[in-house]
Amino acid sequence: MNRFVSLLTGNRVLAAGFIWGLAEGSFFFVVPDVFITAVALFSFKASFRQIVAVLLGSVIAGSLLFAWGIQDPDKAQRAVAHVPFLSPAMIEQVDKDFDKYGIWALCKGPISGIPYKAYSVKAGSRVSWPAFLAVSIPARLGRFLLMWALCSALCFPIRSKILERPGWALTAHLVLWSIFYAFYWRGG
User: Fold this and answer.
1) Residues near 95 by Cβ (< 8 Å), separated by ≥ 6?
2) How far is residue 109's CA from residue 116's CA, in Å, rounded to a whole number?
3) Which among 41, 29, 35 is positioned nearest to 17, based on CA atoms?
4) Which of 53, 73, 83, 125 is the most buried (most CB within 10 A)?
5) How far is CA 34 from CA 29, 31, 37, 81, 107, in A?
6) Residue 106, number of CB atoms within 10 A of its CB
7) Nearest to residue 164, comparing CAs of 36, 10, 2?
8) Which of 4-18, 48-62, 168-182 has the highest mean pLDDT?
9) Cα angle 133-137-139, degrees, rounded to a multiple of 5
10) CB contact set of 72 (below 8 Å; sequence gap of 6+)
């Protein structure tokens, strides 16, 4: 395995996953799945550890937005509303989801494409923090695990080729995610 692959799958990269989870759980607009799947190209084990780091960062960010949403709901919601590609319609849908599903609305976000941060900032007026935390973990973890498993399964048959040509593999990875975001952001 070359130096690049060793760097990408090393323990130092866990901090990057944590930071990405923290950033996307608050105000960044590119999902940490991009990072998790990049690491999954090269190592199942390292990418699974990334899921844990990303999840921790994400839930901490969500908890901070939860607390801010209680402390100063108008200011917190205005700040989140300025996240690129988070539309007013999405924010309105969050209220409808909480009315219909209660705390389980958090699990609807990954399916509907509405960011976790939009639910986090509004959850404090509707549920307790322990309930928010208890549902946040599986709500976030489900999509991370799905993307990890999908990428790992697709890459398994060509793992040796990926390890031989990491630049090619990362380029293909970025192209695929760029296509995804082109379609996703088109509506946002």
Assistant:
1) 122
2) 6
3) 35
4) 53
5) 11, 6, 5, 23, 20
6) 27
7) 2
8) 48-62
9) 110
10) none
Q: How far is CA 132 from CA 69, 92, 121, in A?
A: 13, 19, 11
Tens digits of per-residue pLDDT, 143-166?
899 888 888 888 877 777 777 777
CA atoms within 13 A on the CB side of 186: 7
Token pair, residue 56, equals: 């921790």
Count of C-beta atoms within a 10 Å radius of residue 63: 18
**Amino acid identity of 52?**
V
Rounded CA-CA distance 31/16 in Å is: 13
Sort residue 113 into left (φ over 0), alpha (ψ -120 to 50) or beta.
left
Scan for tokens 């309930």, then name that residue: 131
pTM: 0.87
